[in-house]
Specification:
Layout: H1 20-27, H2 30-47, H3 50-55, H4 58-70, H5 74-86, H6 92-104, H7 106-114, H8 121-147
Helix pairs in contact: 2-6, 2-8, 4-5, 4-8, 5-6, 7-8
């Protein structure tokens, strides 16, 4: 079996220590995570004013991704996203929609965890969230600088 200890999480970090089967389950659904990220980035793009579109929100997305990579706690991340919206750094509607979408990824985490003895469902969820946010950063950069 290949060593998956250094699989990229779609961002700057690496997967946290977890059973190899869980890592493989997450990696096997990368197309799903990339598409989810695309929906999140597209929603952000659509919620921005023309001036905000020019400047983009890459820094804010990277901040959110960084918190996702650093904390094992979903509620802490959801609070940080809402905090950024309350400060006016990101649109409030987008923040609430994104929290809901990312929270919904718990179902996929639960499925992966159910197939792996001793897997931590919460850790799998946070790994998926960090991966999706990493891909969302890339999609957002594409929207701002390359494609939209």
């Amino acid at each position: 079996m290949p060593d998956l200890s250094s699989i990229s999480s779609g961002g700057r970090g690496k997967m946290k220590a977890m059973p190899v089967q869980a890592k493989m389950g997450i990696a096997a659904q990368d197309n799903t995570w990339v598409e989810e990220a695309h929906q999140i980035a597209r929603s952000l793009w659509n919620s921005l004013s023309p001036k905000e579109r020019k400047d983009g929100k890459e820094r804010q997305l990277r901040n959110i991704q960084s918190v996702a990579e650093e904390t094992p706690c979903w509620n802490a991340l959801a609070l940080f996203i809402r905090y950024q919206a309350a400060r006016g750094e990101i649109p409030k509607g987008w923040a609430e929609n994104t929290v809901s979408r990312l929270e919904g990824l718990q179902q996929q985490a639960k499925k992966i965890a159910s197939r792996v003895r001793g897997a931590d469902e919460k850790a799998i969820h946070m790994e998926i969230v960090a991966r999706v946010l990493g891909y969302a950063v890339r999609w957002h950069v594409w929207d701002v600088k390359g494609g939209s």
